[in-house]
Known about the structure:
Helix content is 17%, strand content 29%. It has helices at 90-95, 164-179, 206-214, 231-238, 240-246, and strands at 2-7, 10-14, 18-22, 51-56, 78-83, 106-109, 114-118, 124-131, 137-143, 146-150, 189-195, 217-223, 249-250, 258-261. It has a seven-stranded mixed β-sheet, with no helix packed on it.
Amino acid sequence: MRIEYIGHSGVLVELEKINLLFDVIAPVTGGHVFEPRHDWGTFPKLDPSKDTVVFASHNHGDHYSESVWQLRGILPHVHYVISKDVHFSSGVRERLQITEADMPNITRVKNYTSQDIALGGGAQIHVQTLPSTDEGVAFLVKAEGHIIYHAGDHHMWMWEHNGQKYMEDMEEVFRRTLSRLELAPGESIDVAFLLLDARLEPHTYDGIDTYLDVLPIRHIIPIHQWKNYDLTDAYNRDRADFLASHGATLHKVTGENCVFEIE
């Protein structure tokens, strides 16, 4: 499994017959996004012989770009799995030139979706969603014998300024939603894209800690770091025993379009 961290929360997972693109905001046809806080990255080159599935977890501008719809004119087999909070009115579809002929290749999802999706090139994936603690959904995808999780903005947002009751409720809701994820006995998530966001200050690690408490995860690639890639070194130092006890590896993103090979 080849994984390319494109930028911010955008990643590409390349399987033998399928490309999975999650929350990519790098412009498909090039150009620049003028927002210095983000590492948007460069849109990757995709193998046109594969089915490509484009996921958008929610409508926030650091997770969804309308430029992904341009892939319909570039690749022969593209399917979209789009959270229902993403703007998709008739006016938006008209502006993006999305026609009735495109609709079979677009799957709109809401909280706790669980469904098989047949792709145009002949492959098939299974998609589950969880409701986010912010907007939209998180995705669990089973494809070609692999299990991939992308959090979107589903995270334990422990903002201390909201008070102790808010934080207690946040943790309760977060743990409850994670426990609803459908994994068969003995199954584990091969790779999870989880938030490591220093804006939460003393609670920066809480989200990943809780994911590992609740779910079996083999590999973690951090997202939503706002270019603060040294956070991985800090987590690996501070949580070395915790990671080892859970059999998990946290990989370091070193910059835009960073590539990983995971068995």
